[in-house]
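[AMINO ACID CHAIN]
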Amino acid sequence: MTVRAIVRAGDPLLARVAAPVADPAADAVVRLVGDMLDTLDVAQVAGIAAPQVGVSQRVVVYFVPPHRVSGEPGDEPIGMTVLVNPELHPVGEDTVTDWEGCLSLPNLRGRVPRWRRIRLVSFDLDGRRRERLLGGTHARIVQHECDHLDGRLYPSRMSDGASLGFVDELEAAGVLPARVPVRPKDYLKGEAALLARLARAGVNV
């Protein structure tokens, strides 16, 4: 497929509310996901939203690596996952503040409050409705990526702008955890249903 250019902060597309996908099972959506997977693999991060590759549609691709798991209920490692037309609903009122970064804001990090637990409703690439409860880092990654679908970047969520800084400066100051490299396509290998759907659409990843 295609590695797409990342849309960066300042582009009006990132401030736009993305359009719902009319048919989550359409081959065109599967091909978009193929491009997102290739782009994610090159970027070596845990998630990407369609607006970040220039497509204003409500599609997210993500995974949760073991080293990111918090141990909270609903937070466990998960392989490559596709969300089409996701809806998020907070469960309770607890929030947790932690570091986040974004491909659309390169080399920056900031501390962002997020709901501790959420209920996620979405569709997969076979058009099946999925619902699950998420917590901890899993909930954070999904909230971050779904913000892109509503035209928001993480600095707009920050309660303390003083924490926003460049990665090298924050690491030098000892306030940012060390980065652990990830290989996104390693998290695709065990996802038989997703791989089969990609293959049916002629997508080779």
Q: What stands out?
A: The chain has four helices and eight strands. The helical segments are 27-43, 136-149, 167-172, 192-200. The domain at 12-200 is CATH 3.90.45.10 (Peptide Deformylase). The chain has one domain: 12-200.
